[in-house]
Write a structure and sequence with these properties.
Strands 1-2 form a two-stranded antiparallel sheet. Strands 3-4 form a two-stranded antiparallel ribbon. About 65% of the residues lie in helices and about 5% in strands. It contains 15 helices and 4 strands. By secondary structure, it is mainly alpha-helical. The radius of gyration is 21 Å and the shape is globular. It has one domain.
Length: about 425
């Protein structure tokens, strides 16, 4: 069930929806709702002796965020909203329910090392496949997804390939290049750890070298993304991946990745200058200025409801585009909401690191640290665009949070710890 979600989230173009369902017609969103229904039915049938005895503080953090979102929504509706804001707000609640589905199924469905390893492998493969598509888009200058417009019963909002300078900005199956960057760089810690650990398989596999190919593809795709966010995300992913791998491999990853990046910059004429210009000229860049100016306008937008915000999903782009998920969360859910969101991210990272300390299995330790590194990477990238508003980045965030909590249960089971 979770693998289907991965395929729909990363493989299905997020700009393509089922026409009859409108904004609710994204297959990954609908599948998340199915997961939530399945989880609820399963919980109703669960016997007392089937309950896990491992405390999961992440459940309470997610519950707090849900409560804030519901209260904020109710307050916004009581204040009265323009007609065109009501539908997006209701859709936002369905998106929350979809995130809850994948989040809770991941927590309660992943119970063994084999379950976790299987999903980590598939997430890494999904990120590498998306990166490969991005590489093809960069080389050809085309989206390569024009064929989707001929599928009956679908609404396709596909724009031409974005460019920066003389280079095509890859977007994979995402709506925006920044949404594409999130799964690509967030999958790098998983791919690195899988490569070092031979895919987490007990027996030697002659195909284990393909994991290093995946690492290379993801690294190259991140470098040629022509994006400050992707470069920063790549650096964060590598730095936080190092604790997940043996010391002997750290130099291999660091030096090898640096050499590969330099080769790419040398082979592609003008790419180095363009990337240097992104950082050297950041202060004059319109997108950077917009982000900075947006911070100054936050007090104006939250003044009417600083604690609960304007209401989840009600702050439309026509008011302002912050390009910062954390700031948008502050405006829509207020101070209480952004604190709850920060707690969820922090506890997810802490749960994964806790699992790495508790487990007695080396590969479980490595997977847990890799998941923590992915969560850190996603959280950092959320600073650079409103990722909670995008299908792929938001879905992956809550998927990885659920994985982090699941690793805590797996690690405690391996260590023979019962906190009941």
């Amino acid at each position: 069930m979770l693998t289907i979600y991965i395929v729909l989230l990363l493989g299905w173009p997020s700009f393509m929806t089922i026409s009859r369902w409108g904004s609710l017609g994204r297959p990954s969103l609908l599948w998340g709702l199915i997961l939530l229904f399945w989880w609820i039915v399963t919980r109703l049938q669960t016997r007392a002796d089937d309950e896990t005895t491992i405390p999961q503080p992440l459940r309470y953090a997610f519950g707090a965020l849900v409560i804030v979102a519901l209260v904020s929504f109710a307050a916004a509706m009581l204040r009265g909203q323009p007609t065109d804001q009501i539908s997006p707000a209701v859709t936002a609640l369905f998106r929350f329910a979809s995130w809850a589905g994948v989040f809770f199924v991941a927590i309660d469905g992943i119970r063994t090392h084999a379950d976790a390893a299987r999903l980590v492998r598939r997430l890494a493969i999904g990120g590498a496949a998306l990166a490969a598509l991005g590489l093809a888009q960069f080389v050809t200058g085309q989206t390569l997804l024009d064929w989707t417009s001929s599928i009956p019963g679908m609404t396709v909002d596909l724009a031409d390939a974005a460019t920066r300078g003389s280079f095509t900005r890859a977007s994979g199956t995402a709506i925006h290049p920044l949404e594409y960057a999130v799964p690509v760089v967030a999958s790098l810690p998983l791919a690195i750890t899988a490569a070092v650990n031979g895919g987490f398989r007990a027996r030697f596999s002659p195909h284990r070298g393909w994991w290093w190919v995946a690492v290379g593809v993801i690294t190259i795709a991140s470098v040629i993304a022509v994006s400050r966010s992707a470069i920063i995300g790549l650096a964060v992913a590598v730095i936080f991946s190092l604790p997940a791998i043996p010391v002997a491999f750290r130099w291999v990853i660091g030096v090898g990745g640096g050499i590969l990046s330099l080769i790419v910059l040398a082979v592609v004429p003008g790419l180095l200058g363009t990337i240097v210009g992104l950082f050297a000229g950041a202060s004059d860049d319109p997108s950077t200025q917009s982000r900075v100016d947006g911070l100054a306008r936050v007090p104006e937008f939250i003044s009417s409801s600083p604690l609960l915000g304007q209401g989840f999903g009600t702050f439309l782009p026509r008011y302002y585009i912050f390009d910062n998920a954390w700031v948008l969360m502050l405006v829509e859910l207020g101070v209480i909401g952004v604190v709850s969101f920060a707690m969820l991210v922090t506890i997810a990272i802490g749960s994964a690191y806790s699992a790495s300390r508790v487990s007695r299995v080396a590969s479980t330790k490595a997977m847990s640290r890799a998941i923590a590194a992915s969560m850190v990477t996603i959280a950092v990238l959320m600073i650079f665009f409103d990722g909670v508003s995008f299908t792929i980045s938001s879905g992956l965030l809550f998927f990885m949070a659920g994985m982090a909590a699941a690793m805590r249960s797996v690690a405690h089971a391996e260590a023979g710890i019962d906190n009941g």
